[in-house]
Amino acid sequence: MQMELDKVHMKVAVLLKQVPDLAEELEVDESGKALDTEYIKFRLNEYDEHALEEAVCLKEAGQATEIVAFALDGEEVDKALFSAMAKGADKAVKLTGPEVEGSRQAAALFAETLGMDYDLIMTGVQSVDDRDGMMGPMLSSMLKVPCVSVVTRVEGKESSVTVHKEYFGGLMAAFDVQLPAVLGIQAARQTPRYAPVSKVRQIQQSAIIEEKSASGVSGSATSKVTTMAPPTKTGGAKILGSVDELMELLKKKGVA
Amino acid sequence: MGNVLVITEHMKGEFQDISFEMLGQARKLSTGGSCSALVYGSMKDRSSELGAADRVLCVGGSDDFNPETYASAALQIIQSEFPDLVLVGSTSMGIDLAPVLGVSLDLPIISYCSCIEISGDNFEFTSQLYSGKMDVKSTAPKAVAMVLAGSFSAEDGKSGGSASVENVTADFGVGRVQFKELIEPEAAEVDITQSDILVAVGRGIGGKDDIEVAQELAKNLNADLACSRPVVDAGWLPKSCQVGKSGLKVNPKVYIALGISGAPEHLEGMKDVSTIIAINTDKNAPIFDVAHYGMTGDLFDICEELEDSLS
Ligand SMILES: Cc1cc2nc3c(=O)[nH]c(=O)nc-3n(C[C@H](O)[C@H](O)[C@H](O)COP(=O)(O)OP(=O)(O)OC[C@H]3O[C@@H](n4cnc5c(N)ncnc54)[C@H](O)[C@@H]3O)c2cc1C
Ligand SMILES: Nc1ncnc2c1ncn2[C@@H]1O[C@H](COP(=O)(O)O)[C@@H](O)[C@H]1O
User: What sign has the CA pseudo-torsion B281, B285, B289, B290?
Assistant: First the structure.
């Protein structure tokens, strides 16, 4: 009963984004301005794994009552949403409707969809293709609520959260943030849990993904992409053909 | 076009290098206009270091970074100064500021900028996307750009005359975010910033147990062990081993990178090392662009063979 005092009833939204798997060979499409996504594998943005993990930790600590995972319709999104439920999300929602280009439009869409329904919106800190800004702080700005990003620890209070924001070299700062708020998560307090395939399959059979159609995206200030290309090599490494050559190099450098 | 505003960054009473890097570039881009630097709190007393700017705008406020207050103050200054280009660091602090400024001012936001040039009536930006595997060029007449550390010369921003120092008043928000304290890193067993030789492992090492392979190599080479961020996040090595943007900047004589792809955030911490040797299975890994020597192949095979030759 004593613990009851620490209970906080936060409703948490976690936003999930699929990104190209960088282990794949990346190629530019015919327009010369975008990635050719036809043969690419997609996976969940790794920081979203951390956002979800931290949300589940909050719930396990009795500081959140409900976790809803959101994603925009797209490549392999169902898999990500079912897997989020297998890891502890109570509900999964897929937004269908307009074609969304970039994080800024996505932010506008989520601002409209989420409104003030959640105490805490948790996003990943960034992703590898957010050319037009990071969604967490953009979304907060649209909703006119506070945001702290690059967060590694969240502690729920009655009407606020205490978060750790990471700077560099292990240096961090602690902030109190009034709810409702948006957080950009860099790393969860612990390594994100893994959902066994059997559990995901079980969820797939028993749970459903709620679909919600979102209305059109509004235009906002954008820059104009002119080209996309692999970086031009600037010198680059001298490629060694064998371990013997490497050994020789190490000797020359006084290392071996 | 031609008016450029730099949002400076500082920590513990010192301007961060990124501030000078942005200022040097702002100086070059502001031909025909003016180059201003926004400083917070008591950093006003260090304004003389920002001589590359024409004007230093001092908003006061706390020395401790606060996402809400710093963004609120910057927003007001931008609204009264109308710069064409606002430069913000692609840093932990910048991530909290740039997106908010861009949305509030309805200006395009350009992430991961490694190059900014003038092209006719536009600025042309190069963004390093997909962890440095693609360069995307874009143009806009006005923007908030997030500058990757190490893209421009800090020296350029440190030279110059003397700027006019102006006090400007700003509103610091409604107090929804409260700074509480700085949390210092835990004491490290080994200070990798002092190491002569580093063997650094990345996600390519695969698992906690395999760290041993790198440990063994480090021992035989009299080197210390370092790593990329995912290795720390996975709990395989302590934070004190992390090299990069949110880790440490290192400068050993030799840096051996095993299974590290070379994301901009990692490169920030090691790209100035004089001898970088990279081992990676992916011949297109960006690490090979900054490395001086490279081997494409499986790190385990190569380490094993190396151990044999070493013993
Ligand atoms: C705000 C912020 C701050 C960050 N700060 C840092 C930071 O300080 N330091 C940092 O490192 N990162 C940082 N990152 C993360 C960064 O963006 C990258 O995700 C990270 O650097 C990638 O680490 P990696 O190269 O080890 O892993 P990956 O990018 O996954 O690369 C693994 C590499 O290993 C290779 N490989 C796989 N198997 C083998 C094998 N058997 N033999 C040889 N090679 C193999 C692969 O080809 C691949 O190139 C930060 C990110 C954010 C958002
Ligand atoms: N299209 C999207 N769908 C769902 N979540 C997104 C989307 N874009 C961004 N996000 C969220 O915002 C975070 C930051 O992404 P980004 O804006 O790409 O840097 C991601 O980790 C997600 O949590």
Answer: negative
Whether the model pTM is above 0.90? yes
- The total of other beta-carbon atoms located within 10 Å of residue B117's CB is 14
The answer to whether the Cβ–Cβ distance between A136 and B99 falls below 8 Å is yes
Into how many domains does chain A fold?
1
Question: With contact defined as beta carbons under 8 Å apart, do B53 and B162 qualify?
Answer: no
Q: What is the pLDDT of residues B19-77, one digit of tens each?
A: 999 999 999 999 889 999 999 999 999 999 999 999 999 999 999 999 999 999 999 99
Which atom of ligand 2 is found nearest the CA of A100?
Answer: 1
Rounded distance from Cα B184 to ligand 2 centre (Å): 30
Residue of B277, B276, B280 whose CA lies nearest to B297: B280
Q: Name the fold adopted by B192-310.
A: Rossmann fold (3.40.50)
Between CA B286 and CA B269 the distance in angstroms is 15
Q: What distance in Å separates the CA atoms of residue A179 and residue A181, rounded to the nearest whole number?
A: 5
Cα–Cα distance measured from residue B285 to residue A22, given in angstroms and rounded to the nearest whole number: 10
Give the residues across from A19 on adjacent strands. Answer: A43
DSSP string, B225-282: EEE-HHHHHTTSS-GGGBBSTTSB----SEEEEES----HHHHTTTTT-SEEEEEES-
Compute the distance from residue A187 Cα to the ligand 1 centre, in Å: 14
Chain B residues 46-105 with CB within 8 Å of chain A: 64-68, 91-93, 95-100, 102-104
Q: Report ipTM (2 d.p.).
A: 0.95
Range of the domain at A66: 2-226
Number of neighbours of residue A9 by Cβ within 10 angstroms: 12
CATH of the domain at A161: 3.40.50.620
Q: Match domain B4-167 to its CATH number in 3.40.50.720, 3.40.50.880, 3.40.50.1000, 3.40.50.620.
A: 3.40.50.620
Are A138 and A104 within 8 A, CB to CB? Answer: yes
Identify whether the C-beta of residue B123 lies closer than 8 Å to the C-beta of residue B117: yes
